[in-house]
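Researcher: Next entry in the queue.
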Amino acid sequence: MVTELKKKHGYDVEIVKKSSFGLMQRMSLPKFPSVEIDGQVVFEGCDISEEQLEAAIKQRS
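Model: Structure for this entry, 61 residues:
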């Protein structure tokens, strides 16, 4: 889903895995799964549809 939207809208995507961080760093990350756009957490702790993600991207562009 992210790859298709990346192609469509041309934005950069960074995927962060909590297991890549130490315990203290993981505590400061948002709940999994989450989506952050321009430093603001848009969705946290729930799965989202492609339509919801695309709407959030359009709202911020």
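Model: The chain has three helices and two strands.
Researcher: Noted, moving on.
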